[in-house]
Amino acid sequence: MKSFWLLSLFICTQVFGSIDARFIDRDEKLLLESISGLERTMSYYYSEIKATAQKVKDKNYILSVSESRNIDEFWERFVDLRISFHALYNTYKNTPQQDPRVDLIRYAALVGLTYPAATIVKDMWENERMRQILDGAASIQIPHGFYMSMQNEIFYLQNKLRKRVEADMDFMLLVPGYDLDQEAGQFEYARSAIMLYRNKISGQIVNTIDLYYSRYKKIRPFYQSFERTMVLKYRNTAYKFKNLFYQNFLKISTWIGDTKIHRIDPDYYNGSTLIKIADAKRFQKKLQTGDILTSRSNWFLSNAFLPGFWPHSFIYLGNSEEFSDFFNNDIETNEFFSTLCVEKNIQCSNFVGFLKKYDKTQKTWNNFLQKDEHGYENVLIESTSEGVHFSSIHHTFLNDYLGALRPKISKLNLARAIYDSFMNFGKEYDFYLDWSTDDRLVCSELVSKSFQSDPRIGKLGIDFNYSISQGMYVEQIMGRIAIPVINIVQKAYDENVLNIRPSQMDFVAFLKGVRETNSAVFANEEEYYQSKDWPKWSFKQK
């Protein structure tokens, strides 16, 4: 078997079985992103949530606002990660095994599902009130009973819940069929090939998952108790009488089963979407260089990593000709960069010339001029798991929802914002989601930091960091400073509808997907602002 893996390693260099190597590369990155998020989330659990859980054992203890918010933030993040691991496992559980990374993704996804859940369930076994808090987290749009189903899953993994118990409980199991120990054994066959093939990402995954699995085996005996299994049966029976769980559970199952990772289309990055290329082109005609865009594809794994309906943001540039025409006729911009050309001893006289000739942006400009792998023009800059890069409308406009806002600043300040975005080109994606650092960037960091005002050098931009303590619009999430994309929309609403301060962005357009007709329609500004309150999870949408 090992020789088969080693042979297949050399034969299958581009396409493996029924899944293109590009998608395996992408999903391996998604897996690493999930594991990195899990490490941060569990660290937060140990530092904050576990201590709070001890307090709420006292039924008379009243949670503070901050403690309640911390629990909600932790649980929402943890549920998101479980959905991500479930989707990755379901995608690869029946995939032909020509690429050893298929075994790695499947096995690592199961460890990600099992070890942290087993840890939390064990910690909360005697904490009835905390279990109730997590099971009733409707305020953050998590269906009732999610904790109960997770608890069942962990016990089922070890016991198969004894045949007489299983019949009463299997309807509350999200993934009742997996066997972690069996997957661990299969992974050992692929390990040698992975170690030979090993890249930086797979190496990080293997090291972390090996550690998690060894820890899991130490707590496994807790779940092999028949007495605890019978207690769980009683809890399930009591829960069914107290809660209307089943319909929500069906929605959860549909949500997991229809996750975007299954809707792969090799021609487009986002797979099958409600916005088609003709819609995207009509939308593009409404844009101008420097516009800030928000996007969303339903059932897509990356939705799990940021709160709110809108998970992604980016900056529209236009193609190189549109970009040049936009700036070259602006006197103020030409004068500023002409002076900068002299200061840097560069032979140029305008903004575009500066980008072409300046040694810190020359390579970036040349990348902007290149077409993507399908031959499409680059027209925007964004940060995804691939890092900060340029993209075409085929890569990024084909979503289910697409919105655009226009900064109300001069062309000179737009040019300075875009220059700052170019200076961030090539930086890695910030899997730590930490706005306070600049060496790695998430999508909303790229947007907010590119447009950030800097009075020291006279740059006037768009300000998102009004007050961290008030949550506008850079906020603290599980102890880290971040700016969710949804807060970009919230800022536009606050300024254009509530008029709480002078507006810094105008509404441009909103392309809204309609699932019933498998199409998209242009919607108005009011609906765009309403989207800030729409649920982040696709199965919750109308």
Low-confidence stretches: 1-17, 254-260
- Could you give a short account of the major beta sheet? 7 strands, antiparallel
Cα radius of gyration in angstroms: 25 Å
Task: Average the pLDDT over all residues and give the rounded result.
Answer: 81
Strand order of the largest sheet: 6-5-4-3-7-14-15
Number of strands: 15
Helix fraction, binned, reads 40-55%
Could you give a quick summary of the protein structure above?
The chain is of the alpha+beta class and 542 residues long. 52% of the residues lie in helices and 11% in strands. It has 21 helices and 15 strands.
Describe the structure.
The chain has helices at 2-11, 21-55, 65-92, 100-123, 128-135, 146-159, 162-169, 180-197, 200-219, 226-242, 246-257, 277-284, 320-328, 331-343, 351-357, 362-369, 393-396, 411-423, 443-451, 486-496, 525-530; strands at residues 15-16, 19-20, 292-296, 312-316, 380-384, 387-391, 401-407, 428-429, 440-441, 465-467, 472-473, 475-477, 480-482, 505-514, 519-523. The chain has two domains: 2-262, no CATH class; 277-316 and 377-535, endopeptidase fold (from Nostoc punctiforme) (Alpha-Beta Complex). Helices cover 52% and strands 11% of the residues. It has 542 residues and is of the alpha+beta class. A hairpin with a 2-residue loop joins strand 5 and strand 6 (387-391). The strands form five sheets. The chain has a seven-stranded antiparallel sheet. It is globular and about 80 Å long.
